[in-house]
Amino acid sequence: MQFFKYILIPVLYLLLAGRADAQIFINVTGEWNYSVSVNDITEAGNDFQGTYSSASNQVLIDVRQRNFFFDLFFNYNWRVDIRKSDIDWHPNLVLSARRTGNGSPLFFSGNVNGGTTYQQVSNANQSFFSGNRSRLDIPVQYRISGVSVLLPAKAYTTTVVYTVTDL
Question: Domains of the chain: which residue ranges?
Answer without folding.
Answer: 2-32+46-166
